[in-house]
Design goal:
Blueprint (H helix, E strand, L loop, with lengths): L10 H24 L10 H6 L1 H12 L6 E5 L2 E5 L10 E7 L8 E4 L7 E5 L6 E11 L2 E11 L1
Antiparallel strand pairs: 1-2, 2-5, 3-4, 3-6, 6-7
Length: 153
């Protein structure tokens, strides 16, 4: 009968292989996290926190209106309705189309409603998906802010 030699596992080699797998995995994870793109909602967080109470006041003002701000998607036309009582010479505002999945798609439109408070915006060229409308306007020296979700199909 022939004796076969049994190879023994060398424990220092096992420790080295385990350590090499751990280091490779850790370095791969670090490389992966550094190559991920991060989009900030607001570039200057500190500056925004200093004026956040003003933002809250604008939201409260908009919620207290008898005739609220509304928006309605009619095909490829977004119909926006501002309160009729705000249609005067002191009206000014902006509509921000905010894309949560990519800040490079964000854009701003100035608010220019007609005499009855309506404004129409063609959204046929805008990428499909979820958008957030951030509407800020000033009338008679008072600021207003309203935010609504818009889903384009």
């Amino acid at each position: 009968m022939e004796k076969t030699e049994k190879k023994e596992w060398k424990w220092p080699l096992g420790i080295f292989i385990g350590y090499a797998i751990f280091v490779t995995g850790t370095l791969s994870f670090v490389f992966f996290t550094f190559t991920q793109e991060t989009d900030l909602v607001i570039e200057d967080y500190y500056g925004a926190t200093l004026t956040y109470q003003e933002h809250i006041d604008k939201m409260v003002n908009a919620n207290l209106l008898d005739e609220p701000f509304t928006s309605h998607l009619n095909g490829s036309i977004l119909e926006i309705k501002f309160p009729e009582t705000h249609q005067n010479d002191t009206f000014e505002g902006r509509i921000v189309f905010y894309r949560p999945s990519g800040s490079s798609l964000d854009f701003t439109v100035s608010a220019n409603p007609d005499d009855s408070g309506f404004q129409q915006i063609n959204v046929s060229e805008i990428e499909r998906g979820l958008w957030k409308l951030h509407v800020e306007w000033y009338a008679d020296g008072t600021g207003y802010f309203s935010s609504q979700d818009l889903f384009l199909r």
